[in-house]
Design a protein that fits this description.
CATH class of the domain at 61-189: Mainly Alpha
Shape: elongated
Low-confidence stretches: 190-213, 215-226
Distance between the termini: 106 Å
Strand content: under 5%
Structural class: mainly alpha
CATH superfamily of the domain at 61-189: Tetracycline Repressor, domain 2
CATH topology of the domain at 61-189: Tetracycline Repressor, domain 2
Largest sheet: none
CATH architecture of the domain at 61-189: Orthogonal Bundle
Order of helices and strands: HHHHHHHHHH
């Protein structure tokens, strides 16, 4: 005879698993320790999760659901404000859900978790690309490739969050500075003009070298005929 589910116990198990995995990693956390933290036997825990892998993945999914909830309405804002809110939400999420973020950095080589990590990153990139693309259409942002721009921003945020977890930077105090730097990159009106001028100058230099080379080739050819 199977036991009836205990209300709220599944959520308690996931919460304990997040804490344990974030602290000791997947390999260093035995299932019995998670069961002990919740106050149940391993047998009861297996009524909710078939194995340790499933529990680990569910701990990751719970963090992803919380993240998605926080950015659900960002797309409704104007593009510049949406970028600011996206960055601030990203950093606040890392502060409030440190356990979930730690899981993203710990045990990165777990093959069974790789598809989830990839899907979550693709989701973040797609969401951010949509905001940037909207800004480009509105004439607010000036980037050649919205996907590459989103990737660049996510790399910056990942680095900031890593240093925040390490205690080397204060993310709460850095939000506005980071937002301004990202928006400056996306707008890049001055930088774009300089880049265009630099590209024109470089192309002109390359063309000049080609003309010189061609002229020398003709002169050498003439010398051989003589």
């Amino acid at each position: 005879m199977s036991r009836l589910p205990i209300p709220g116990l599944r959520e308690k198990i996931i919460s304990a698993a997040q804490e344990a995995f974030a602290d000791k990693g997947y390999r260093g956390t035995p299932v019995r320790e998670i069961a002990r933290m919740v106050g149940v036997t391993v047998g009861v825990l297996y009524l909710y999760f078939k194995n340790k892998e499933e529990l680990y993945l569910e701990a990751l999914r719970e963090g992803m659901r919380f993240y998605k909830k926080g950015i659900r309405e960002i797309e409704c804002d104007d593009s510049e404000e949406a970028i600011r809110r996206y960055i601030k939400n990203h950093l606040e999420y890392s502060s409030v859900r440190k356990q979930s973020i730690s899981l993203q950095f710990k045990d990165y080589d777990l093959e069974f978790a790789r598809p989830f990590r990839i899907d979550f990153f693709v989701y973040q990139k797609k969401f951010l690309t949509g905001i940037i693309n909207k800004g480009v259409k509105q004439g607010i942002f000036r980037v050649a490739d919205c996907g590459d721009a989103a990737l660049f921003i996510l790399y910056i945020l990942k680095g900031a969050i890593f240093n925040g977890l390490a205690g080397t930077v204060n993310l709460a105090a850095s939000k506005d500075t980071l937002c301004n730097l990202v928006l400056s990159f996306l707008k890049q009106s001055t930088a774009s003009g300089k880049t265009d001028a630099a590209c024109h100058k470089q192309n002109h230099s390359v063309l000049s070298r080609q003309e010189i080379k061609s002229s020398l080739h003709k002169r050498n050819a003439g010398d051989l005929k003589e």
